[in-house]
Amino acid sequence: MLGQERRTRLLDLVRVQRFASPRDLAKELAVSESTIRRDLEQLEEEGAAKRTHGGVLYTETSPRLPHFDARQSQRWEQKRAIAERTAELIEDGDAVLLGGATTTYEVARLLVGRPLHVVTNSLPVANLFVTHPGSDLVFVGGNICPRTGVAQGPYAEQMIASLRVRKTILSVAAVNDEGCYDNNALLVGTERAMMNAADEVIFIVDSSKFGHHNLVHLCGLEAVTTLVVDNQI
Length: 233
Hints:
By secondary structure, this protein is α/β, with parallel strands linked by helices. The chain has helices at 3-17, 22-29, 33-45, 66-72, 76-88, 102-111, 123-130, 154-161, 185-196; strands at residues 19-20, 49-52, 55-58, 95-98, 117-120, 136-139, 143-145, 150-152, 165-170, 174-176, 179-182, 198-204, 216-219, 226-228. Helix 7 links the parallel strand 5 and strand 6.
């Protein structure tokens, strides 16, 4: 594992756990404690973490949503690989509409600081960009889901209908031969509006969601321009 990749993974572990000891981090990443301490020193210089007696605290902007944090750590390696490939599809200067799923959040983290026009209905995603001047940020309002921090419903749909973006990036709960599904009927209407606002629709879905259906049918596969999935499909 390269240094930057290791530090990225280390920071994600600290963010999810909120506090971690160098010993636990070294065990998780299969490196020495001295390597972890050097990484933590660099992250502290960057303002991303703060070392304390016995461990390290996360100090960057965080979603602070228990449900979001719990899901963020699930299948992290697959989500990260999907996010890295998806970020390569985004060109500087693009107008990008980002949904609020945990995999989409990983994409957003890789886009922070790039010269982009970012539109999102996700409070966690918006928090990433709001303190970085490199990107223009538009936040879509509406009814906020307390579990995910995502704006949805008719107010969100009305605002999205007035916008036009180059690419919309969404994640869904399930994919099968009949198309894509999500588990929130109110959110599905908003996601359809997000798809209609884009020239290209990119779905990012980890392999565990394939071959299943869920509560609400969102769209057929023909509505998706690009599908990014990990190599365990």
